[in-house]
Each structure stands twice: as structure tokens, then as C-alpha cells.
Amino acid sequence: MTDKPPAFDCDDPTTWRHEGVKIDLLRLLKLIEKNRTPVNLDLHGCSMLNIDARPQALQPHADAYVPRRGSAAKPPWLWARAERGVNLTEAHLEYADLEGAHLEQARLWNAQLESTDLGLAHLEHARLWRAHLRHADLRLAHLEHAQLWEADLHGAFWYGVYLERTGLRREHLGPAIGDELAAKGRARHSSTFHSAREAYMTLKTNFDSIGRYDDASWAYVKEQQMEKAMHFPTTPGHRWIRRRVRRGHRRWLKRKPARLGRFVRASILGRLQWAWLHLCLLVGFSPSDIKSRIRAKKGEYIDRPRWLRNWAYELLTGYGERPHMPVVWAAVVVLLFALIYAAAGNIASGDVGALEGQPTHSPITALVHSISAFATIGFNTLEPQGWGARLLTAIEAMLGIGLFALFVFTLGNRMRRS
What we know:
The chain is mostly helical. The protein has helices spanning 25-35, 55-63, 178-183, 193-209, 213-230, 235-253, 259-283, 288-296, 304-317, 324-344, 363-374, 387-417, and strands at 347-349, 358-360, 382-384. A three-stranded antiparallel β-sheet has the order 2-1-3. It starts with 24 loop residues before the first helix and ends with a helix.
């Protein structure tokens, strides 16, 4: 036998705070009238499932409204006119159930909507300026032409949301959306990397439609990272890695050196351990219980070739969105081959003052030869001696051609997107 919901009385403020109380449109309007304003109206945890607060539904109530003594002639639950929707400015709706609610053209400025369930809700043309939507569930919600400027959307869930020229910025979302955090086991809702990928794809399309190309580039990179994670051990593997890294970080922070040096060393070692544990999971060197939990997850598997391909795309070009990365790799290749040439001493210099055909260990000569080989220029005064040096020169030339092509492609892609 289920418990009955708590009694609700619009005239008794002590009953307003009960969580789980079901509120329909008439009760909502009476509460706003009793409070004389929606500001600081406490609807924390209330259930407004499928509530119909569209402008068409508000019109009969607006026509029948009779102002009380000392009240404004206009109903306090209207912010302009009936065509503009319900006024819930600065209302407290934390943990409320608004699934399937019709709040078209509603005014929700500075509304407190933390952890609110807005799944399947209709918020077309709604004003959500500076609304607090941290960890809100927006899955399958309709946000076409809604305005979310300066809203706090850290950790919100976006899978299946409908966006069309929705006012939104990347900084409103935080470093990662709730779908990604849940896929990595850091949020209370369940999700997968596939859902996170679809959510980032939707955000990318919306950013492109409103001309925010840098934000669209960030969403595209996130989308590709989620696709890469789809072919790697997901929730069990990530939790195991996170526990190991945190344990090592705490252990390294307890060592003796100075505070700043201890923190820097712990951060660097944590990054190295994170990379090493990912490599262990990739090749299969992980505890047996982690392997069994990964196998038990339906739809979660390790596709090593596709993961390595996506990893190479990210490492070399940032998925075609970071032109500086091929330049960095070019510098690394040139310096690395210069060190090899200088250590082996198999580059013959024909400069004035040097013996003709005499190999040298000069780092300057090795660097000049490495740059000429990478750029496929070639100097008559520098010549590799032996088949090993010639092979290294040919390999460096091929790497130079490949990295130059990647740089041109990445730069053109960024210019086209901008």
C-alpha cells in the first residue's frame, strides 16, 4: 500500500515545502498570487509532471483574474501578456519534477533549477537568462529558440535534446557535460559514451547555427573523444584507473620535499601513471575482476584498431581542429633526428675549414642537416655517410612531407570553420 501524498493548502505556507507534492496549473497560479510575486517562491521538490503552462492555457485565467486590494492590476504570474507565458523569475525549483511540462515562452530568469528533471519538457522560446541548471536533466527536452545566456549548465544532461538556434555558449557547460561525467562514473545518472557523443553532436550543430564556430570546434573534439572512448574499456576501467591515480597522488604528496615541488611532482607522476594504466588496459594487462566487469557490460567492448586510429588523429592534429599540433610534432622530429645524427657522427661536412667527406659530431651541423632533410631541401655540403644515415634521412623526409600535409589540412579546416 503506497503512502498518500502530503496534504496541500495554498493558504498554508507550511505545506508548500513538502517534496513530492503534485501541483497543477491552478495551484501554481494561486501560489504565485499568494506570494504576490514568483521571486523566492519555494517549490523545492514538487511534482509538476506534464503541467500545461502554455500561453493559450494562461489566457482564460488572465481574463478571469480579479486583483486583490494592494495588488497590481496585472496577474503576478504574467511577465508581459498572456502570449509571453508564465512568469517564474527567481523561483526555487530545485529537484522538482517538470518532466513533460509545457513552459513555452516562460520567463525563468535567475530561476533555481539545480538537479531538476526537465526531460521531455517544452521550453521553446523560454527565457532562461542566468538560470541555475547545474546537473539538470534536459534529455529529450525541446529548447528551440530558447535563451540560455549566462545560465549555469555545469553537469547538465543533453542526450536527445532538441536545439535550434538556442542561445548558448561553451563556457556555460563547464569542462564536460553530465552525459560524459556519467559515462565515466562521476555522476548519479547512468549514461554511455554513445549518449555523450550524440549530445556533443547536437551541441556542435547548434553552435554552428548561431555562428559560434570556436564553440562548435570544442564540441566536435569532444564528440570525437567520446567516439574514441566507445572502443575502450568504459566505466569499470575508468573507475579502476581513477582509484589508482588518486591513491598514487596522495602517496606522492606525503613525500618530504617543499610543498610546491611536491605538488608539481605529484601532478606529473599522476599524468604518467594515467597514461601507463590506459596502456595496460589497452593491451589487456588489468586485474581479472576488471576484465570480467568489462565483459559483463553489454555493448561495451575494446576495439583496439579503431581506438588506436582515433588516438592517432587526436595526437597528431587534435581531430583536425588544432593547427599548432603538427608544428609541435615537426619540431620534435627535427630535434630528435638531429640528436641521433650528432650522436652517431655520420654526417659529412664540406664546409670551409673541414676535411672533405669527414664525418662530424657537431650539433649545429646535425641540426642543419635534420632541417634540410625534413624540408626535403638538401645541401651539397652535407651528406649522410653509410646506409643507416641515408635510411634515417629518407624516413625524416617522409615524416616532413606527411606533417606538412597534416598542417595544411588542419589549418584549412580551421579557416573554413571560422
